[in-house]
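Slide 14.
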Amino acid sequence: MRKNEMKKKWNETDIRNYLEESAKDQEIPKSLLPAQMEEWLRQQTAEGIKKEKETDEEAGGADQRGLKKSKYFGWWCGSFAAAACLALVLFAVGKNMDWKLEVAGDKTADMAEMNDSAADTTEVAAEGTTYEKLYQAFDKTWKQQENLYLEKREYAEDDAVADDAATEDTGTAEGAMITESAEDTADSANMDADSEHETEDYGKTNQQEEEVEEADIIKNDGRYLYQAVLQRKDEKYTVRIADTKGGLTETARVGSFQMIQDIYVWKDKLVVLEPGWAESSQETDSMQQSEYIYEDQRDSGFIQILKDGLQKIFQHTSAADAKVSDIVSGYAYCRIHIYDIAKRSDPREYHTFTIKGGYMDSRISDGYLYFFSSCETSRPADAENLKTYVPMLDGKPMAEDKITLPENTDAASYLVMASVDMEQPDKFVDTKALVTSADKFYVSRDNIYVADIQYPSYSEKGRQTDSTRLFRFSYKDGRMEKAAEGSVKGTLRDDMAMNEYQDYLRLVTTVENSNIEEIVDDISGEVLGYDSLESETTNSLYVLDANLQVTGKIENLAKDERIYSARFMGDSGYFVTFRETDPLFSVDLSNPREPKILGELKISGFSEYLHFYSDNLLLGIGMEADEETGETQGVKLSMFDISNPADVKEQSKIHLSEYDYADALYNYKAVLIDPKKNLFGFSAEGYGEEDKRDYLLFSYENGEFQQILKIDCSDSERWSWTIRGTYIKDRFFLLGEDGRIEEYSLTDKSRTRELEP
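Slide 15: predicted structure.
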């Protein structure tokens, strides 16, 4: 084996550093900015699935054993902010490269692997540190990153020299070109006596915890509809307020934004969460310069995006030709805009907060907004330049005693948490930061749980297991306090894999055990690096106490499968694994020290999303699959009878074979669901001879699924890619991202009104 073919696994930090060092202050086209990337990415996902489906049909259905779904599903399921970041990266890097095929070996796969050290510590890190300690901790990581970059650059140069020689001998040259695609005053805060608020008969955002509100791109208060809208006239975002009383009319448009991530409506306050990016020359009164743009790169979808996108670069690029400079000298930020909407027709801006870093998540609980962002660091010219490695809020560095630096961490980024009193939202109530690369959260009624995935280090041979480091922050009245720290084996699929009940945290993980072996030079015997030549996958359930110590567990479940959905209710838990069939496990959690598997229902396909439809019914939204090969065969709905957890049955199912994808599979907020109303809906897409996109609305009666509405949304001129459904009493509303609203009668199923963009 050649020395330059294998040295050490590339992780995400390495990738980012390489790209940052490979670009040269390029002006980014407007078409590649995040606001314009979302629709493009959705379109690419659809086209990818369609092409893959056509290829499978032409091949007569190749053996897909062990494959759960189309690769393009995962491509979009990650944060599109991460994808947008990649688009900026690819453009900036590409502008400075000769695009010649000079990289030997398949390095893309190596780069996509993770090699962060797995920390297994339960010692609670005290809140509060010093800027000096932070700098020292980050300095080690910065140096490691720089050394890794230099190593990889050296090997890339060796490759380029060798390949140039080979090219001269054969008299051939290969090249590739990458082209850029150019392309009412009657309202008041006090609702009328006949307001729908009195009945609560209206659609709400689908959320994990009933009393902890989550943000979304639309909101419904029982009379007014609020939606984040991308205006075609100027490609700016705004919040449109529409009044449904006595008809369907536009009441107001609120603000003008580069982008809107999510919104809240809390009493007479509107919250707009605006992520953004600005070049370093564009200093603002409330922000300071930093070095990076979108920080959602740790999202699971980012790795897949890099795999797909970087192949287009590194298979056609001489890394030796890359110039060393910053990719984009700028900063990521998120603004929290608060508006007074007591008079809906005349919204007034109340206050705006600015936080350095990329938006990650948020919640409103007991009248307080809790905001989470990810803040990257970069090496400053000197340690006194705090703005490059300390979280900034409204232009001021966070106080040292608000920052937690855990032991045994190699992260060089923060989770930043901030709270705002919604009754008087003119200042932060509390702020906290945790040095971590965590990107998964679960917020219960009393606690914030943070999950940081730890991957094998690939620095020594032997058996290594991935793990998840957990942090618990208690919160009340806007105040947050770090309370506990622990760890478990394996990694979490998503936030739904966690649940708190009676002061215990229950969670399910997929555990990958890797056998790490040395990579040795055949001639010199030098150890060049480490690689995992084989791995084994199992699944586990853990119960942890308030100190995040494991009190009970079930391990080694469903070998060679992975967890795809989970849901907990009281003393019971349900989770789905998949390879060729879909085992739905039911678990007795009544004794936190001795959780027990009660049943295992094996059926075809799998459920990506689970939702309790009643005390005795569990709804599953997922995909049908071939029992022999595991190849997906369209969207599937299942209703499980869980009246006897030890003997769960699939009471009814419906195979929507004409649909290959649904947003509901990866974004639970895209699901309109109200079991009390006996109503649920989502959009679905099919890719066949003719592409289709419909919004589907169902009920469940007499043991069968009943389709209430099927609305054709295939016309891209009428409907943007992001659509949502909601209802008020017997009226159903379909909302498009461009501001279009259609109203339907739930009584006779007819379209009754329309509000143009």
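Speaker note: Residues 131-170 form the longest helix (40 residues).
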